[in-house]
Structures are given as C-alpha cells and as structure tokens.
Amino acid sequence: MKNAAWLDPQEYPFGPNYFDAGPGRIHYVDEGSGETIVMVHGSPVWSFIYRNLIKGLQNKYRCIAPDLLGFGFSDKPRKWLYTPAAHAENFTKLIQHLQLKDITLVVHDFGGPIGLDYAIQFPENVKRIVVLNSWLWPLNKDKNIKQASQLFGSSFGRILYQYFNFSAQVLLPRGFYNSKNLTPEIKQHYLKPLSKPAHRRGTWQFAKELLDSQNWYATLWQNHAVLATKPMLLLWGKHDKLFRRSFLHKWRMHFLQAQVVELEAGHFLQEEKPAEILQEIKDFLKN
C-alpha cells in the first residue's frame, strides 16, 4: 500500500517503518534527529495529517507519527477490539520498542486519551505535551457527544460507517471551518486508506467508544494531576462543532500551566492552520 498510486510523495515524502504489535503491524513515520516528538492522530485520519509538522520540524527534531491499527498504512485486523485502551497498549509497545526518551507528545482527537495514557503511566519519560482539540475525561454527560455516539455507534451507524465510509466522506469535511481547506486531492488521502468496508471497522468503533469507554476515560481523569506540572500547549480550533469551547475551558481549569492559542479553524486545525501551529510548536519547544 505504501506504493499506492494515490499517494502524493511531495505531500508525504516519508519512508515506511513497521512495528509488529501482535494483533497487526503498525506503520509509523520516523524522520529527523534530535529531541523526540511523537504525534498521535485521531479519526478518521492517519499520520498524513501531521505531514506539515514533520516537514517543518525534522531538521531539528526526531519526529515519529504512527498510524493506529485500522488507519493509514497500518494493518486493519478484522477481529481486533479497536478500543482506545487497546490502541493505547499498542502505542506504549511502540514507544518501548523504539526506546524513546524524554518525548514531547502531540495529540489530537482520540489521540488525546490514547497518547496521554502513556504520559500518565510514564510521566518521567514525557517532557512536554501539545494538545489539539481533544479530551481526557468521561463524555457521557455531554449531550452532543452522547447523541452522536448513540446514533453512529448503533447498527445503523455501523452501516453508515462501514458501507458508505461516512466518517471520511461526510464527517471529515464537516470538521472544517473553511471547506476550501480540504481540497479534493487532500481528501483522497483520507478516503483511500478506508476504501473497503472491511477497512472501516476502526472508524466505527471509535464512534461507539465515545460512550462505551467511559470507565477507561474516568480512570485517566482520576490521574490527570500527574500531568499538571508538565509544560503544555493547547492549540484549539475555535469553530469545532463537536469539541466545543467547554472542552477548552476544562483543559484550562485543570492545567493552569498550559499556554493557550485559539485559531480560526475547525476540528482539523493541522489542515486549516498548518503554518500557524508549526510556529507555535517551534516556539513552545524553544521555551
């Protein structure tokens, strides 16, 4: 798949790397040298969403961006769980396999709880944290999230996700504040890895897990104070329709040390404001 005709090598000029996590092989980008930055994506995207950050940072930093199982160029096992907790286990295995030290975590969407699970377990190995439109707490009291998860996590939602690629075809564009920022060429890079119904289990499972993983989210949140002394940068798309300002407010309330930058973007601010977030992260790393 790495030689897929649809892949634009100018947009994504990175060599392939693979790690056998047990249930399947995880593909990951590993570019540059220096302090290590690990970037964790959410749904329905893959490491492609971090391409501009990697290209802008690899001259001074080692940039690692895995594709979660079920996404991008990673395997898409049919009988695996695809829960955030299971993804988090694989993420920990990858970091340990690569023997990464003093890492800066960059997390977005489901990458938040998945990546920060590692930070909570091994705080001594995480130097800084960058959060882009994500969460770390139970979502069952959020009316919008609850309704969305109940609808899309149902059998009807499974049909939408697995047979009509609803997550990448419909929800991805709706996550943009300015639809012009999602060109047809870029959109293809998110559609093609999910071109078969059998490859879309991961996106549908995430829709379910917004609610079904409440106990796991609650455990993470009970231990969030472990991260309260870490340098943190919150980069927030102000026009996110799902993760609204109340999410940002909760981050600010509980992580008083965090620097906050709000941007005129929707949920996928890596695509809408790549130059701005690159500069903010560069400044954060220097300081």
From TrEMBL:
Molecular function terms in GO for this entry? Answer: haloalkane dehalogenase activity
Q: Which residues form the AB hydrolase-1 domain?
A: 36-274
Q: Name one Pfam family in it.
A: Abhydrolase_1
The keyword Nuclease is annotated on this UniProt entry: no
Which enzyme type, at the first EC level? hydrolase
Write out the entry's keywords from A to Z. Answer: Hydrolase
- The EC number(s) attached to this protein equal 3.8.1.5
Gene Ontology, cellular component aspect: membrane
Checking PANTHER family in the record gives: CIS-3-ALKYL-4-ALKYLOXETAN-2-ONE DECARBOXYLASE, MONOACYLGLYCEROL LIPASE
Q: What is this protein called?
A: Haloalkane dehalogenase
Query: What taxonomic ancestry is recorded?
Result: Bacteria, Pseudomonadati, Bacteroidota, Cytophagia, Cytophagales
Gene this protein is translated from = dhaA
